[in-house]
Amino acid sequence: MHNSSNNTVTVGAVVAAFLEQCGVKAAFGVISIHNMPILDAFAQRGAIRFVPARGEAGAGNMADAYARSTASLGVCLTSTGPAAGNIAGSLVEALTAGTPLLHITGQIETPYLDKGMSYIHEAPDQLTMLKAVSKAAFRVRSVETALGTLKQAVQAALTAPAGPVSVEIPIDIQSALTTMPADLSPLPIAVAAPAEDALDALAAQLARARRPMLWLGGGARHAGAAVRRLQALGFGVVTSVQGRGIVPEDDAGSLGAYNIHKPVEDFYGRCDAMLVVGSRLRGNETLKYELKLPRPLYRVDADPAAEGRCYVTDAFVCGDARRVLEGLADRLEAAQYQADAALLKDLKAVRDQVVGALFDGLGPYAELVRQVQQAAGRNFNWVRDVTVSNSTWGNRELRVFAPSAGVHATGGGIGQGMPMAIGAAVGAAVTDSGRKTFCLAGDGGFILNLGELATLVQEACDMVIVLMNDKGYGVIKNIQDAQYGGRRAYVDLHTPDYTQLCAALALPHARVSSMAELPARLEQATAQPGPFLLEIDMLAIGSFKTTFAGPPTNTITQIPALGQAAASVE
Ligand SMILES: Cc1ncc(C[n+]2csc(CCOP(=O)(O)OP(=O)(O)O)c2C)c(N)n1
User: What is the distance in A from the centroid of ligand 1 to the CA of 567?
Assistant: First the structure.
């Protein structure tokens, strides 16, 4: 093959050029001998901002939140072996959330691959590990097929149901010289078209309902305009946590993500149809699938496997959420359908009731929610770790006004919130969205990826971390109290002095020890762009009024003490 000298590049440079064509503006990872040809090309081409995370787990979370908050492809790069293993938990999270994520990992040199020769970073059967935690995983087999494999991987990541896709590129292939391909364009993404007769049938069924509800999940994030058409016909709205912001959360016709509370369940009982769109109906958002949803229950999903999953469905339409909702709106508008106007009045009253009850249960922290919301305004990212504060209020308040504004650890893994917030803040910076990022974390989860605070400062992320510090695993304590006879173990944590830690990191910090201090501290935290850690001293301020002891279910199992267990068995 003849190469004119200025067109001869490494495969690493082809990877970089292709990602640029995919619209990637930032990527995250940890540099290594097994990915340097790609990162060398990133640096020389200068088109993609590369964020050097301090660990692969953090890099994966950053890329995930970048993708969710910018509604575009996230990209992370790792080395092979231990590094690829380090990102596994983050890929599980991206898989749970359905995030379009491309994970590029190195692999050892082709001649030694799969031979068990103790090559540095060798991991036996790494591809099987990656397949287990991703939507798909590929290995690049040759210089000639590298681009094709990458295109296939990006297409797989972006096609609904979207998910993380890993690609192994052996290091000899990354550094091999080749000709820059002429066609670097990404492959088209197929949008699942619903069957017309299925739409006719579903529209006819919906037209019989007087009090219909829409339940929107993350799969409907791009369908906001079609949702508004159905709202205009009188449909009420409720969302999963992943579906937040499809309808702005101050819309009087929406319950927001107040989807599980008792008055809401009672309200469902007064509805006569529910259309679930692009939602997993996750166990922790449905009282382990026992939440009584309205009947008939119709379901729309791009994934045919969603039919009948979690709940028996009365009708199922396979197709892209936007296409299906537009098709239904066309038909119902033509039929001059209008739902019973009393539905939305009832919905609003229920919403006021559950919002009031939630704020009441927060005790002193109700004021925190109000003031942070006020400071955040309407255009912000709201990124949360797994902590009592998120389970109780963060998953529902602050109110968000765009479907890309809310990011949380859907899979329930602690420690991912702060790196996710870095990804969202970098996304806001490279897309000029004007969004400040607010991050909510508990001290127990926070310490898991503490090293990423250095990344945060280095990248000068525009972010306020609200750190709920109770010097322990609060929710686990509550679970031990509720289910383990109050036998508290392994839940008290040696916790850093964040004043000193932040000083060492050059990270601006303030501690709030009483709610009276909050306005001034919040003002300080948001006065200028850049990172800020706002520590909420929960031991000084006090506890919530209502205790949260794990994902809500209808049944709580008591675990007796060892001696008692033996006695009760006899
Ligand atoms: C990766 C991972 N490890 C362990 C757990 C179990 N776990 C769930 S919540 C929690 C405690 C979190 O403590 P903290 O961040 O301080 O929040 P708090 O419960 O005090 O609000 C733990 C250990 C988990 N969910 N994910």
Answer: 32
